[in-house]
Write a structure and sequence with these properties.
There is one protein chain. A 12-stranded mixed sheet has the order 7-8-9-6-5-4-3-2-1-10-11-12. The protein contains 11 helices and 12 strands. The chain is globular, with a radius of gyration of 20 Å. It binds S-adenosylmethionine (SAM) and iron/sulfur cluster.
Length: 363
Amino acid sequence: MIQSRSGEPQLIDSHGRVLRDLRISITDRCNFRCVYCLPETEEAANFYRSRFQSAAGTSIRVPASPIHREWKPKAELLTFEEIERIARVAVGLGIEKLRVTGGEPLLRNGVESLVARLAAIRGVRDLAMTTNGFFFAGKAVALQSAGLQRISFSLDSLDPINFKKMTGSDGLTGVLDGIDLARRMGFDPVKVNAVVIRGLNDHEIEGLASFAQERSLIFRFIEFMPLDSNRAWQKDLVVPGREILARLKTRFDLTPVDSSTNPSETAKRWRFADGRGEIGIIAPVTEPFCGHCNRLRLTADGKIRTCLFSIHEHDLRPLLRADATDDDLREELLRIVVHKEAGHRIGKPDFVQPARTMSCIGG
Ligand code: SAM
Ligand code: SF4
C-alpha cells in the first residue's frame, strides 16, 4: 500500500492512479444560464433549435426536454463544518489541491469563512476557486485574506451580445473588471476558461487569445462536454482542441510548455513567444486524459464522484450526520476511490450522460 509522508494510506484506485485533487462544489445554484451548462434561456433554446435543424437536414430533431431541476434544499447541503471535515480527512490521505466550485460558489453565504477553514488544513498545497466572476469584486479582498491562492474565471466571449447569448447574463463588464482586479491583487496565476462551441463563440478564439496575451493570463480553451442540463450536446458542436490550436498557431507565435513534471495536467499548454501569458487546450472529448486523472469530486449535497461522468455516486452525508468517526470516513474514501472509472465513454455506443449536470457536479 502506498503511504503518505505522514504514514497514512493514499487514495489510490484500481488503475494505480493516486488522487491528489479534490473539487468541492458548495452549491448547485447559479445566477448564470450558460448555454453549455444550464441552457434555460430563450436564446439558448433558439441556438440549439437552429443547430438541430441544420444537423438533421429536412427532418427536425427536437432537443430532449430539460431535466427537471430544483435547487437542493439548504438542509441537504453540507455545512462548512462538514465540508472542512471531509477535506481534512482527504488531505490526510494525500489530497494536496482543493478547488472550491459550484454552481456559482460566490452565491453561498459566507464562502470566505469556508475558504479560511480549508486554508487552515495542514497539507493543503493549493487552494483555488472557479467562478463566473459576477460577484468577485465584492468578495475579492475577503477571499484573499481568508487564504485563497488562485482563482479561475469563466469567460466565453468578449462581445456583450454574444456573452449574453452564452451566459444569459449582461455581466460581461463586471467579469472583465473582476479579472483585472484579481491581477492587481496579485492572485497568481489568474486563469480564465472558455468553453468553445461551434457556431456560437468559435469566431472569438483569436480575440480571446489576444485578450490573454495583453493581460498575461493563463487562458484555457475547453471542449464542450455532454454535461448540459438540456442534454442537447452534439458532437458537431465540439470544436476539437487540434482545430483550436491550428487556428491559434497561424496567428500567434507559440512555444510549447513542458508539463512532464505534472503528469496529471489536463491542458496542453503553449506560451506566447513574447512571454506574456499562455494558452492551454483542454480536450476531454477528442483527446481524453483519463489515464492520468487524479481528481475526486464532492457535490454540494455530500456525494463523492470519482469521475465527471460517473453514473454512481457515494453518499457521505448519512455518515457525517450519524456518528461516524474520522476513521470511518477515511475507510469509506479509501473504499470508494478503488472503483474510480478507467475513463469516460463519450462517443462510445454505451455512453450514458450522467443524471447530474455540470452545475451540480462542479467543474
Ligand atoms: N460557476 C462557476 C464557473 O462557471 O466558473 C463554477 C462552476 S462551472 C460548472 C465550472 C467550469 O465548468 C466552468 O469553467 C465552465 O465553463 C465549465 N463547464 C460547465 N459546463 C461545461 C460543459 N458542458 N463542457 C465543458 N465545460 C463546462
Ligand atoms: Fe453557472 Fe458556471 Fe454553469 Fe455557467 S458554467 S451556468 S456560471 S455553474
